[in-house]
Amino acid sequence: MRTRHIATIAALALVAAACGGGDDGSSASNGDDSSGTIFVSGSSTVEPISALNAEKFKTDNPNVSITVEGPGTGDGFKKFCAGESDVSDASRPIKASEAEDCATNGVEYVELQVAVDGLSVVTSTANTAVSCLTFHDLYALVGPESIGFDKWADANDLAAELGGTSGPYPDANLVVTAPGEESGTYDTFVELVIEDMAEQRDQFPASRPDYQASANDNVIIEGISGSDTSLGWVGYAFYIENTDQVKALAVDDGESGCVAPSAETIADGSYPLARPLYIYVNTTKAEEKVELASFVDFYLGD
């Protein structure tokens, strides 16, 4: 089924994530008369936005039970296209294969952009050897040709061949902790950083598989902070909430120069790893469940 775009809201950085239920108390909800249940699943990056909107919505609608979980974009779409969830949080657009699953199961939906996030490339706060990485550097360190690179310096030759400018890298352990393949954050990183170079070099577009992968962003933060010479990536919200444990590296896509993630650079698009965030709403359920339609209106409200 072809995704129907019927609404978007102004792009904003995830650090200012609440998109609905303005501070003035305005709401499109039906107040205390609403009741029922709403199930939201999907992206762990979008989960805090949905959870905050659910909390605000319930203030005026205490009889509505809202469950919000964040197993990952891919796992969320599995539930959504099986008809199990009402709303699917996503840190990437739905894939063609997922849209086919929805169509097979008779699930019609609408895609709504709710925020703009920035994938943050992170390392330990103790790592003073690296401050900026180009896309070529990232490919050399975590791309499909990096299998077996146990030290940063192992990537020096590949980085030089590709045109990376941050080398030579230190002769220090390269401990990578990052999202797994079930994550939309993983998919977006591969699409933005790895895919073009991998295709040019006749490689499968994927990250190296030999790293600690997790769908839990808090586990990733723990892994990054646990090694002085770590490397990984998370959504901006998880970086900004843990600046006492991890630091973000500036990123250069070859044209941008070294740009660090911030609310401003993500919002204005100058940060090379900025990306839109979405919710997908089951339109049939929204027609049948007044509480769901009210919640979505609230979510998208000013």
Task: Explain the overall architecture.
It is elongated, with a radius of gyration of 20 Å. Helix 2 runs parallel beside helix 3 and helix 4 runs antiparallel to helix 5. The strands form three sheets. It has a six-stranded mixed beta sheet with strand order 1-5-13-4-2-3. Strands 9-8-10-6-11 form a five-stranded mixed beta sheet. It is built from eleven helices and 13 strands. Helix 1 links the parallel strand 2 and strand 3. It is an alpha/beta fold and 302 residues long. Helices cover 33% and strands 22% of the residues. It folds into two domains: 137 residues, D-Maltodextrin-Binding Protein, domain 2 (3-Layer(aba) Sandwich); 153 residues, 3-Layer(aba) Sandwich (D-Maltodextrin-Binding Protein, domain 2).
Q: Mind sketching the topology for me?
A:
Elements: E1 4-8, E2 36-42, H1 47-60, E3 64-68, H2 73-81, E4 87-90, H3 96-104, E5 109-118, E6 120-124, E7 132-134, H4 135-142, H5 156-162, E8 175-179, H6 184-200, E9 212-214, H7 217-225, E10 230-234, H8 236-240, E11 246-248, E12 250-252, H9 263-267, E13 274-282, H10 283-288, H11 290-299
Parallel strand pairs: 1-5, 2-3, 2-4, 7-12, 8-9, 8-10
Antiparallel strand pairs: 4-13, 5-13, 6-10, 6-11
Helix pairs in contact: 2-3, 4-5, 4-6
